[in-house]
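At this stage, I put together one protein's amino acid sequence and its backbone structure tokens, which the following lines show:
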Amino acid sequence: MKPWTASLMALVAATAFAAQGTQDQIRAGAALSRVSPALEAYTRNALFGDLWKRPGLSRRDRCLVTLATLITRNQTAELAFYLDLALEEGVKPQEISEIITHLAFYSGWGNAMAAVNVAEPVFVRRRITAAQLPPAAGPHLPVDATAEATRVVNTQRAIGPEFPGLLHFTNDLLFQDLWLRPALAPRDRSLITISSLVASGQLGPFSNHLNRAMDFGLTETQATEAITHLAFYAGWPHAVSALPIAKDVFGRRPH
């Protein structure tokens, strides 16, 4: 049995977390069967037995979508479990560190700090050291000058001169610093961004970021499967609300 499969079974049946010393997860698993046998069955059969096995999105990508959703919504009860799962599925410690950093900008500092508090004991238990994490500053990824010029024009138009501070931070800090940090691939950074936007119901920038994600290599199949995954972790209304925008983006892109 693969490690991630054993962990999923532990989440449902509360049988394998004792070795990790996560008493809260043991209690949560036991409570699930006592409080809602139907939810336990849906968790076992629909969530992990079907959704996580669908081929349109890798399990690694599903981990990225799930982490982005839980951090954005400040739903930390299961975050340690999914951090472990992400590491088992090949998400690197430096990528998890960068996901939390990125989401501070897209879901707020408080949510990122709450995620840090959950991630720290996971990193300690797994002996993840500072040497495995991205530095605070360093070389940036190269910039596509044409695409960046278009983005700057669009940003200036969207924000306007009435908000010079926000315009400054959006250009200089968000897109010319954060988005160019190399610890997270641009495609993955876009995937967690669109996941965060859907999870929070903030769909105003969703079209631009979905286009950006697809420019970076996210396929239409992967995008549709990410939204399907979000239906379970952010709720059906949030996923369904994103559909008209996603369909419009797909229809406008060259095939």
